[in-house]
């Protein structure tokens, strides 16, 4: 009787182990299929990514060439600006100063001639309030 009991216990144990091994095998098959599918999809994606990186590298090289050309143009423009400023700057300042002196001298003569008649400030649409107030204030104080 003890032998039959041990045999039944071993049969139940082997059955549970067989079911567990069958489920494990099924899980391993599904995992293998999933890894194969991911590999099949990853290889083209990696190839596309590699092509995109190569294209970006080419564009970066082009932008670098353009940036160096722009830097050269900027330095040339700066040198030209400095040359023009040093060549024409001094004489232009002298001409402007001479013109200012002439205008000042001419306006000084006009002021001497205009000393006989008082200068008026005219604001379109408005009278100068200061002049009117002085007259009114004097009249009210008296």
Largest sheet: none
Which word captures the global form?
rod-shaped
Q: Which value, in Å, is the CA radius of gyration?
A: 50 Å
Low-confidence segments, given as residue ranges, are: none
Number of helices: 2
Share in helix:
over 70%
Average pLDDT, to the nearest integer?
82
Tell how many strands the DSSP assignment holds. 0
In short:
It comes from Streptomyces griseomycini. InterPro entries: UPF0478. The protein has 142 residues and is mostly helical.
Q: What does this protein structure show overall?
A:
With 142 residues, the protein is mainly α. It has helices at 2-113, 129-141. The longest helix is centred in the middle third of the chain and has 112 residues, at 2-113. It is rod-shaped.
Layout of SSEs?
Elements (H helix, E strand, L loop, with lengths): L1 H112 L15 H13 L1
Question: Which descriptors apply to this entry?
Answer:
single chain, 142 residues, mainly alpha
């Amino acid at each position: 009787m003890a032998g039959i009991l041990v045999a039944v216990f071993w049969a139940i144990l082997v059955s549970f182990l067989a079911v567990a091994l069958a489920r494990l095998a099924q899980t391993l098959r599904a995992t293998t299929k999933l890894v194969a599918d991911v590999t099949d999809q990853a290889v083209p994606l990696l190839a596309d990514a590699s092509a995109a990186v190569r294209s970006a590298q080419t564009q970066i090289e082009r932008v670098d060439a353009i940036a160096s050309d722009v830097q050269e143009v900027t330095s040339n423009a700066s040198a030209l600006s400095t040359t023009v400023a040093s060549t024409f700057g001094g004489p232009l300042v002298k001409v402007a100063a001479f013109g200012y002196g002439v205008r000042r001298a001419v306006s000084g003569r006009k002021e001497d001639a205009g000393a006989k008649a008082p200068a008026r400030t005219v604001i379109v649409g408005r009278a100068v309030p200061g002049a009117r107030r002085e007259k009114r204030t004097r009249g009210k104080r008296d």
